[in-house]
Design goal:
Oligomer: single chain
CATH architecture of the largest domain: 3-Layer(aba) Sandwich
Number of helices: 12
Helix content: 25-40%
Structural class: alpha+beta
């Protein structure tokens, strides 16, 4: 099958060249093909270059410009002629009024595979923000304005001083895709490179991929996100690669409401309780690990405080990225809470009781390091006396939060993460404002059978509705699960081509389910491959260069295996 390129392909490049800052190369003129190559080490360099861009969910413009720059660079270097590459971008608005822009780059097939059907490669542009030492609720954007400061240490890539996330999730996949712009000598079928937006907030870009503006003709899709390993041990940097056969579905839910507040008694003492230094982690991969969730810990601590002061009243709580309304998919690492204690209770007595309780409570979470975790209780003076929940409302609210489904809901020792249904309460905010206090919850139930995740989400919403929180409004993003049988031809060919024995189903959500829904020809023709990225969604995120290189080699070998087959690409 000959893939005919539209006569306006060059025009597409020119249009997106408007995104490129002055001084950067961007050309639509014909070029002479040159023998530029890009090996596995080159891909690591591409990743490091991408890492200098600021690319939060819903704010990936700099990354999109960077992709266009790579297209222009490939043309200017003579790797491709301008009319051989096309770049197209869609634009849509989601239910929360975020503007979403996905990018599709088409690359011709090479060698003996030039006239085959295309293969789509897919990765997302956005990354999760998490910063070591950042206060709960603190804006994190300032740490990423110049991207991530990547260092190479003993064959491992991580952020400098492990201060921020690395962004290998999913920058590694983006870099592997860009390789095919920089090296024409690689033999492969025609490629459709799919760069998606806002994956980390519920595969939102993929769900809003405009199939009319960005039609895919691919007969197969390879997802380059996630974790392609047979282990989720947090330090297993050199775990063997595995072929991804599927991923869990999820419900990413944001719930707004309000709760009545009233003036704090004049003789009450205001105290601030803060927790910091928890490990956190990816709410899919690491939800089964013995790690503390700061929001559940907040509720447990206040329940303990009730035993000393049953008249305690909650003023505010801030855990996770409340203002940014993101972070549902990472285990919260700390909180700041303010509450009022009665005149009969001393701060010293409460401090002693809470620290004694917390020492015992923390010991059950064996992943956590007591030396790294800080619990602090201090009396504070407010410039303006705040409002607080009533005593009864405080009890009901705290008891409900403590009982919300969190962690592993249904265990499955045979799955990679050790569970089949899980839930993460990731964001919680109650403001310290007027009588009508704003409340925000963010949570993500996951399951390999999507209906079960939806049931957990409905239970959480119902539980919140049974508290003093009123005017509940929830905004859901439903992430479809996907699964391919290991006996299908695409899996058999991928394993043989890449010499990989293992396969796995991700205990997290990835985007192929959304693409299969939009492009039915991809059904049963989807797999994933990625390096062993450890501690994703935390400042300890890292990837071994060798694993990165191995995954890059495996991807190329899989493309060759697909090209050599006599089945779905013909």
């Amino acid at each position: 099958m000959v893939i005919r390129r539209p006569v306006f392909a060059c025009f597409r490049v020119v249009v997106l060249c408007a995104l490129v800052p002055a001084g950067m190369a961007c050309s639509d003129s014909p070029a002479t093909v040159s023998p530029n190559t890009c090996d596995e080490g080159c891909v690591v360099d591409i990743f490091k270059d991408l890492s200098t861009t600021y690319r939060p969910s819903y704010g990936e413009d700099a990354a999109r410009v960077w992709v266009q720059q790579q297209v222009s660079k490939a043309i200017d270097l003579g790797v491709w002629k301008a009319d051989e590459l096309s770049v197209t971008m869609d634009q849509s608005v989601d239910a929360a009024n975020h503007t979403l822009k996905n990018v599709l780059v088409r690359v011709p097939g090479t060698g003996p595979y030039a006239n085959l059907k295309p293969v789509a490669l897919q990765a997302h542009l956005d990354i999760v923000f998490a910063v070591d030492g950042a206060a709960p609720g603190q804006p994190l954007d300032g740490y990423y304005t110049s991207g991530v400061d990547v260092v190479e240490d003993g064959g491992v890539l991580h952020s400098r001083n492990y201060k921020t996330t690395l962004g290998a999730d999913c920058g590694a996949g983006v870099a592997q895709m860009v390789r095919y712009l920089m090296d024409r000598t690689l033999a492969h079928p025609p490629l459709e490179l799919c760069f998606t937006a806002a994956e980390e907030t519920g595969v939102v870009g993929a769900l809003h991929w405009d199939s009319a503006t960005l039609p895919l003709h691919a007969a197969a899709l390879i997802n380059l996100d996630g974790w392609s390993s047979t282990s989720v041990v947090e330090d297993d940097l050199n775990a063997p690669l595995a072929i991804q056969l599927g991923a869990a579905g999820a419900v990413v839910d944001s719930v707004d409401g309000q709760i009545d507040g009233s003036a704090v008694a004049a003789d009450a003492t205001l105290v601030k309780l803060s927790l910091s230094g928890l490990l956190g982690g990816h709410s899919g991969f690491l939800i089964g690990r013995p790690r503390m969730n700061a929001i559940i810990a907040f509720a447990a601590l206040l329940q303990e405080a009730f035993t000393l002061d049953p008249d305690l009243r909650l003023v505010s709580i801030n855990a996770g990225q409340v203002a940014a309304r993101v972070g549902h998919n990472k285990i919260p690492t700390g909180f700041d809470a303010v509450f009022a204690i009665s005149s009969a209770t001393t701060v010293a007595a409460l401090d002693t009781a809470l620290h004694a309780f917390f020492t015992s409570y923390l010991a059950t979470f064996t992943d956590e390091s007591p030396a790294a975790v800080t619990l602090a209780l201090d009396a504070i003076i407010a410039a303006v006396q705040p409002t607080a929940l009533t005593t009864a409302a405080t009890h009901t609210f705290v008891d409900t939060v403590r009982a919300l489904p969190n962690g592993v809901i249904e265990a499955d020792p045979g799955s990679l993460g050790g569970w089949s249904v899980s839930s993460n309460i990731g964001v919680l905010g109650v403001n310290d404002g007027t009588a009508n206090k704003a409340v925000f919850f963010g949570y993500t139930p996951r399951a390999f059978v999507l209906d079960k995740a939806q049931q957990v989400a409905a239970q959480i919403l119902g539980d919140l509705g049974n508290t003093e929180v009123s005017n509940l409004v929830d905004s859901k993003v439903v992430v479809p699960a996907w699964l391919v049988d290991r006996t299908t031809d695409i899996v058999v060919m991928a394993k043989a081509g890449a010499a990989i024995d293992h396969d796995m189903v991700l205990p997290a959500g990835t985007e192929p389910g959304a693409f299969v829904d939009k492009f039915p020809q991809l059904k049963d023709h989807v797999i994933g491959i990625a390096p062993a990225i450890v501690e994703a969604h935390t400042p300890r995120e890292a990837v071994a260069i060798q694993s990165f290189r191995d995954a890059t080699t495996a991807l190329q070998n899989i493309l060759v295996a697909f090209g050599n087959s006599t089945s779905f690409l013909h």
